[in-house]
Write a structure and sequence with these properties.
single chain, 134 residues, alpha+beta, Arc Repressor Mutant, subunit A, three-stranded antiparallel β-sheet, two-stranded antiparallel ribbon
Length: 134
């Protein structure tokens, strides 16, 4: 199991399969590393990521419709990389990294995300389509 230290001094342990699935999903996502680096420090809203805004900010390589963007972010929530931001009124449209997400993004500091292999893309698509727990 991999240990993760979060800012609040709690240590989280993840199984190897969990870390591998999260890493594969992060690599196969349509988002660039600069988005995840920003999410390490602050919440980023869906409106800032979707459509032309995401391309202008360098978060994506091509414009993503809001629904596709929300689905991709939702998948990263399901695999444990992201979480929705919450305020006093409830859930917002902002996203931040989880402790697992922090661990994964730290592995790629000062580098670009590696290009996923075709087998990674296929595996991620199958798991995502069927929502398999591995």
């Amino acid at each position: 199991m991999a240990a993760v230290d979060s800012p609040n001094t709690k240590t989280f342990f993840y199984t190897r399969k969990t870390v591998e699935r999260a890493k594969r999903s992060l690599l196969c996502s349509p988002f660039n590393l600069c988005l995840f680096n920003l999410m390490r420090h602050q919440s980023v809203t869906l409106g800032a990521i979707a459509l032309e805004n995401g391309v202008k900010q360098g978060y994506t390589n091509s414009p993503l419709p809001e629904l596709i963007c929300d689905n991709a972010l939702g998948w990263l929530i399901q695999v444990g990389v992201l979480r929705r931001e919450v305020d006093g009124q409830g859930i917002t449209d902002g996203f931040r990294l989880t402790p697992l997400g922090h661990q994964l993004v730290e592995q790629f500091q000062e580098k670009n995300l590696p290009t996923p292999s075709w087998s990674d893309r296929l595996s991620d698509a199958v798991i995502r389509w069927f929502r398999l727990p591995f």
